[in-house]
Write a structure and sequence with these properties.
The complex is a heterodimer of chains A (about 80) and B (about 300). Chain A is globular and about 25 Å long. The mean pLDDT of chain A is about 90. Chain A starts with a helix and ends with a helix. Helix content of chain A is about 45%, strand content about 0%. With about 300 residues, chain B is an alpha+beta fold. Chain B is built from eleven helices and 13 strands. In chain B, helix 1 packs across helix 2 and helix 3 packs across helix 4. The mean pLDDT of chain B is about 95. Classes of the chains: A mainly alpha (about 80), B alpha+beta (about 300).
């Protein structure tokens, strides 16, 4: 499974929604992600991609779309 | 050493339902309950000052402790809603309590102010004697400011809580505390004089969801106490969903987290001590059992305090 597919599976699992977001679609504006699911998404990303996300990077905008999450993961690579 | 001797609180009589608060911003009561757990909050009369409601909670605490104002060595008042930049409410609250002449310190901190006050009091009590820590908030003034925002208007209420910390005896010993602050996120939650409250709710929840459990784990780890062994968690009553999330992160049953947000809303720096006051009446400290206090708020400031029943 490629990274984007893994990412979408994480989003579906965390949000408990089957909607598949477009890569540039805001997860918040589309109603897929809410404030209380965001911490779970961040924790799931850390676990799935073996990255430690420091508190200084805890900006909701970094996790607002599939593309932004990918950009963030690239920056952490 | 320092001990928690007693708690006190004061709450206004006027109840504002979530139907009413929701109607200000086009939301129904069910939505308010779902996003916050709040069914009602209380608003103080417009003429009440932060100092006055602080003094009422302080007087309640002293009465429960069976102590007169003459026994107070230091007063600390936390509030994010003081009427003016200076002087803050602490000196007036102390005077109203009959403790004029006693040093009185303001902590202009929302939400986490009472926690910081308790941690400071534990260090200062051996030097000053009994410290009366008070958190008092008139959040209704903020709620009612135009333009009213959905995330703010439904959330907050008024109230005051107090805690008497003694250097020699009490119901629980204050064992340790962990405090932290990070100004990098100061713009995510702030209140300027006379202006509406500005809150990036997503950021606040994201940070609080991680920082509160981390602080609790840190202070428990220092003393090799598993979270499952904690008798009760007394948190700043910010949002029921947040408290449930902290409980889940720690792997603790949510029933261990005392909650009264359903009835009072988020009373900012007052909420943790109001919760502690009600918890004390319903359950109270058990000898030897650890109890955790924790809070997170604008700044960001956050932390946790460990007490153990005597």
């Amino acid at each position: 499974m490629d990274r984007r597919s893994r990412l979408i599976e994480i989003i579906k699992k965390v949000t408990k929604k089957d909607a598949i977001p477009a890569a540039d679609e805001s997860l918040f504006d589309s109603g897929i992600l809410d404030s209380f699911a965001l911490p779970d998404l961040v924790s799931a990303l850390e676990q799935e991609f073996s990255v430690q996300i420091p508190d200084s990077d805890l900006n909701p905008r970094k996790f607002d779309s599939v593309e932004r999450i990918e950009e963030y993961l690239d920056s952490r690579a | 050493m320092a001990f928690i001797r007693e708690f006190g609180c004061w709450l206004p009589e006027h109840v504002v339902t979530s139907e009413e608060a929701g109607s200000w911003v086009g939301c129904d009561a069910e939505w308010v309950r779902n996003v916050s757990g709040i069914e009602e909050r209380r608003f103080a009369p417009e003429t009440d000052t932060v100092a006055e409601i602080a003094a009422r909670a302080g007087a309640d605490c002293l009465e429960r402790a069976g102590m007169g104002a003459g026994g107070i060595g230091l007063v600390i008042v936390a509030s994010g809603t003081g009427e003016r930049a200076f002087p803050g409410p602490a000196c007036t609250a102390a005077r109203l309590l009959g403790a004029a002449g006693v040093p009185a310190i303001d902590l202009p901190m929302a939400s986490a102010g009472s926690l910081f006050g308790m941690a400071l009091a534990a260090r200062l009590a051996p030097a000053y004697g009994a410290v009366l820590v008070i958190g008092a908030e008139r959040m209704s003034r903020v709620v009612l400011r135009e333009p009213r925002e959905k995330g703010v208007a439904i959330l907050f209420g008024d109230g005051a809580g107090a805690c008497l910390i003694s250097p020699d005896a009490g119901q629980a010993e204050i064992v340790d505390s962990v405090l932290a602050s990070d100004g990098a996120f100061a713009e995510d939650l702030f209140l300027e004089n006379g202006a509406p409250l500005k809150m990036n709710g997503r950021s606040v929840i994201l940070h609080a969801s991680r920082k509160i459990p981390a602080a609790i784990r840190s202070v428990l780890h220092r003393h090799s106490i598993p979270a499952a062994d904690v008798q009760a968690f007394l948190l700043h009553q910010a949002n029921q969903n947040l408290m449930d999330k902290v409980a889940a992160t720690l792997g603790v049953a949510p029933e261990r987290f005392f909650s009264n947000i359903r009835r009072y809303g988020n009373t900012s720096s007052a909420s943790m001590l109001i919760a502690a006051c009600e918890w004390r009446r319903q359950e109270g400290f058990r000898a030897g059992a650890p109890v955790i206090f924790a809070a997170f708020g604008a700044g960001f400031h956050w932390g946790a305090l460990l007490a153990r029943g005597v």
